[in-house]
Amino acid sequence: MSKRDYYEVLGVGKDASDRDIKKAYKRLAMKYHPDRTAGDKELEAKFKEVKEAYEILGDSQKRQTYDQFGHAAFEQGGGGGHGGFGGGADFGDIFGDVFGDIFGGGGGGRRQSRQQRGADLRYNLDLSLEEAVRGKDVEIKVPTWVSCEPCDGTGAKKGSKPQTCGTCHGHGQVQMRQGFFAVQQTCPTCSGTGQIISDPCNSCHGQGRVEKTKTLSVKIPAGVDTGDRIRLAGEGEAGQHGAPAGDLYVQVSVREHPIFVRDGSNLYCEVPLSFTTAALGGEIEVPTLDGRAKLKIPSECQTDKMFRMRGKGVKSVRGGAVGDLICKVIIETPVNLNERQKELLRELEESMGGNSSRHRPKEQGFFDGVKKFFDDLTK
Q1: Given its phi and psi angles, is residue 237 left (phi above 0), alpha (psi -120 to 50 degrees) or beta?
Q2: Binding residues for Zn(2+)
Q3: What angle do the packed helices 18-32 and 91-102 form, to 10 degrees?
Q4: Which of 286, 67, 56, 93 is nearest to 171 (CA)?
Q5: Cβ contact 160:204 at 8 Å
Q6: Do 237 and 246 form a contact (C-beta atoms < 8 A)?
Q7: How far apart are CA 60 and CA 54, in angstroms?
Q8: Residue limits of the J domain (predicted)?
Q9: Which residues contact 310 (CB under 8 A, 6 or more apart)?
C-alpha cells in the first residue's frame, strides 16, 4: 500500500511555512493522541502517520530531500536515515513535544521515560599472560538484580496487574502551575512509573526484581590485553517493573609475567648470556609462549644487544599479523671463581697486552672522552 503525501497528511500546501507545518502538526497530534482516542486502532494509525509526516517536513534538510525524491529517499536503507519508521511510534516523546511547547517547555517539557533501564555492571577479570594470549572460557559470579520470576517482572501478584496511575494518567509526570508558568514534576503518587501496584508480589514486594548472584560463562577471545572490555548485553541489573536490563562489562587486566613484557603484539624478555658465549658466539635456548626455541649468538656480542624472533609474539584480538619476540641479552660477569679460574683470566688480560683498543673499543672510546672532558675544564 503506497503512503499518502506528507503534505496531504498534515493538510498543508507544499509552500507552507515551517510555522504552519508545526501548527498543523500540533493540532492533529492532539486530536489523534492515544490518550484521547481510547485505543481506537484506526485513529492510532493516523497518529503514527501524522508523527511520521512531521518528522520529515519539520526538518528543513529532510523536507528538501523529500521534495526532490519523495518517499523513496526515506525507505529502509534510503538516504534520509529514516528507514523503518513505520513499525511504531514513541507516544511519550510526542506527548512531551506537543504539551511541552504549549506550556512553555520546548525540550524541557519532555517527560521522562516511565521505564528506567537497569544499571550497567562492571566485573574486573584478572588473567595470566598465557590466558590472555590464547583465550579461554571462564565462569564468573555476579551479584545483581534479576527479573522476579513469580510476577514476571511486573511487580504485581500473579493474577493481578498494575493499574494506570490516576494522578498522572500514566504519564509519570504532572504539571504544577505557578502563576503564568507551568513546571513539570515527577508524579508523587507513582514516583514516575505511571502505574500503581495495589496488590504487590510477595517475592519482590512490588519492585519487579530480586537480588541474586548469577553464574555466567564468558568466552575470552585470544589476544585480549589490559584495558579491553567484553560487553555482555542484557546481563546487567534488571530494571524495575519489567524495564529492560542493563549490560555487563567484563574489564580485562593481565597480570605481570615473570619472564615476558607485552607491548601490543610484541613480547620482550631479557636473556642472561655467559661471558664465554658472548665472546666466542654460540647457540642458546630462549623461552617463548610456545615452548623453547634456539637463538644463534654471533661472536663478540655486547650486552643489551637485541635479537628479534619473528612470529613468536602475540596476535592481537583486533587482528593483524602475529607480533615478534624481542630478546635482549645481558652478559653475566663470572662469579665465585676459584684461584685457577682467576689466574686464567689474568693470563687472558696479559695476553691482550697494551692493545686494549682492539679488544675493548668502547672502553678506549670512553676514556678518550673523559680525558677530553677534563682537558676542556682546565683551559
Answers
A1: beta
A2: 148, 151, 165, 168, 187, 190, 201, 204
A3: 120
A4: 93
A5: no
A6: yes
A7: 11
A8: 5-70
A9: 324
What integer is the mean pLDDT of 37-41?
72
Q: Which residues are annotated as a binding site?
A: 148, 151, 165, 168, 187, 190, 201, 204
Phi then psi dihedrals of residue 120, to 5 deg: -75, 150
Average pLDDT estimate for 278-282: 93
Write the class of the CATH domain 1-70: mainly alpha
pLDDT tens-digit readout, 341-354? 999 989 888 887 76
Q: Which CATH superfamily is domain 260-332 in?
A: Urease metallochaperone UreE, N-terminal domain (2.60.260.20)
Give the cell for residue 238.
Answer: 534488571
Q: What SS3 class is residue 254?
A: strand
CATH class, domain 121-149+210-254, is mainly beta
Secondary structure letter of residue 73 according to DSSP: G
Would you mind telling me the total number of residues written for the chain in this entry? 379
The model's pTM is 0.59
> For residues 92 and 113, is the Cβ–Cβ distance under 8 A?
yes
Please tell me the distance from the alpha carbon of residue 375 to that of residue 237, in angstroms, as a whole number: 75
Which residues make up the CATH 2.60.260.20 domain(s) of the chain?
121-149+210-254, 260-332
Non-local (6+) Cβ contacts of 305 within 8 A are: 328, 329
Q: Residue 326: helix, strand or coil by DSSP?
A: strand
DSSP letter (8 states) at residue 81: S
- The fraction of the chain above a pLDDT of 90, given in percent, is 40
> Among residues of the chain, what percentage have pLDDT more than 70?
79
Percent of the chain as helix, strand, coil, to the nearest 5: 35, 25, 40
More confidently predicted of 131 and 34: 131
